[in-house]
């Protein structure tokens, strides 16, 4: 994006973001030809691009929300790439002549969070009990696979990843912790999940109730959930998160950095939304961001993840992956863990 043009269209400090939602001001390998919102985007080769010219002269991205429709059009030859298929659709692609699949881990995760301010979940023993009550393997099995085991906020494949789990599934331990915290008969709570995580929510509800935690499951649209979430209005929640860049700091800040839970906070990310401030973890996040020695930095992140699991309000449920179906006409296709693709490198056979 040309920063000069973006700044010229600044509206109330938004750095031109409102303008950019309707206009193209880039200088990349492709130029925008047309954009039908929620329908189709057409790009053509930018002959004035400063770098190597794209292999394809035109790129068309069609918005097809349903994976079943993507699969039908891929098999019918209408499209050459189905971007996000379900795990149970992969065998159908693999047995279809002229198609192949790619499965790629993503720096995205599904997580469970507990409000850290109000009783009874302001008690660390209760939070540990809740985490011990949840069987993440059962969750992954219920959704049909295609995801990756994960116990922390740093995904596999990213620097600083810790593969340990401080509070694995242990229902008896959960009951002991509840009794120690003064809740031998459990308590009642509302778990809010977006509609696309309803299966995961149902599984978690079942496991919480097995240790005496009566769980009212609220399944709502994601936009509605975000509105409540950003106002610290949820008791327990499930949501997704994706790193903006391939460094542990991208996830450490939202998941572990919060100095105050009040409205005066300057950073209101995930820890703040769940009303949880931990000064020691916040100090560790800030320290790790500026350490230059790789080994020393990694150690701080490992220690931070252990503390995050032991004391914090979050439980990672699994790491996401992307399942793609591709025509063998397509060559040089690459997708990375941030779901980025160098479209200019892709070739297409006639």
TrEMBL record:
CDD domains linked: PBP2_NikA_DppA_OppA_like_7 (cd08512)
Similarity remark: Belongs to the bacterial solute-binding protein 5 family.
Pfam assignment, any one: SBP_bac_5
Solute-binding protein family domain: residues covered: 18-260
Gene3D superfamilies named among the record's database cross-references: Dipeptide-binding Protein, Domain 1, Dipeptide-binding Protein, Domain 3, Periplasmic binding protein-like II
Chief localisation class: other
Organism from which the protein derives: marine sediment metagenome
PANTHER family in the cross-refs: PERIPLASMIC BINDING COMPONENT OF ABC TRANSPORTER, PERIPLASMIC OLIGOPEPTIDE-BINDING PROTEIN-RELATED
Xref: InterPro entries: SBP_5 (IPR039424), SBP_5_dom (IPR000914)
One GO MF term attached to the UniProt entry: peptide transmembrane transporter activity
Subcellular location(s) per record: Cell envelope
Gene Ontology biological process terms from the UniProt entry: peptide transport
GO cellular component, as recorded: cell envelope
Keywords: Signal, Transport
Name of the protein this chain belongs to: Solute-binding protein family 5 domain-containing protein
């Amino acid at each position: 994006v040309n920063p000069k043009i973006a700044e010229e269209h600044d509206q109330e400090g938004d750095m031109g973001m409102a303008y950019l939602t309707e206009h193209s001001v880039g200088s990349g390998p492709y130029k925008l030809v047309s954009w039908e919102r929620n329908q189709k985007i057409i790009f053509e080769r930018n002959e004035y691009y400063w770098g190597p010219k794209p292999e394809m002269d035109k790129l068309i991205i069609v918005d097809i929300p349903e994976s079943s429709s993507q699969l039908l059009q891929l098999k019918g030859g209408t499209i050459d790439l189905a971007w996000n298929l379900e795990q149970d659709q992969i065998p159908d692609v693999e047995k279809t002549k002229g198609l192949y699949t790619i499965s790629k881990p993503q720096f995205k995760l599904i997580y469970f969070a507990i409000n850290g301010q109000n009783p009874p979940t302001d008690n660390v023993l209760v939070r540990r009990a809740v985490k011990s009550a949840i069987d993440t393997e059962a969750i992954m099995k219920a959704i049909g696979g295609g995801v990756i085991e994960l116990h922390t906020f740093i995904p596999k494949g990213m620097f600083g990843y810790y593969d340990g789990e401080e509070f694995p599934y242990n229902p008896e331990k959960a009951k002991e912790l509840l009794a120690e915290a003064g809740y031998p008969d459990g308590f009642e709570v509302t778990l809010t999940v977006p509609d696309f995580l309803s299966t995961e929510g149902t599984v978690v509800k079942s496991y919480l109730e097995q240790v005496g935690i009566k769980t009212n499951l609220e399944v709502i649209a994601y936009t509605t959930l975000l509105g409540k979430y950003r106002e610290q209005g949820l008791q327990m929640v499930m949501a997704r998160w994706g790193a903006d860049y391939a460094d542990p700091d991208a996830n450490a800040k939202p998941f572990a950095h919060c100095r105050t839970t009040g409205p005066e906070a300057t950073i209101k990310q995930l820890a703040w939304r769940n009303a949880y401030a931990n000064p020691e973890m916040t100090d560790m996040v800030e320290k790790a961001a500026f350490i230059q020695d790789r080994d020393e930095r990694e150690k701080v992140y490992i220690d931070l993840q252990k503390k995050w699991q032991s004391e914090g309000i979050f439980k990672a449920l699994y790491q996401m992956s992307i399942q793609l179906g591709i025509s063998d006409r397509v060559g040089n296709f690459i997708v990375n863990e941030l779901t980025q693709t160098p479209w200019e490198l892709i070739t297409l056979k006639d």
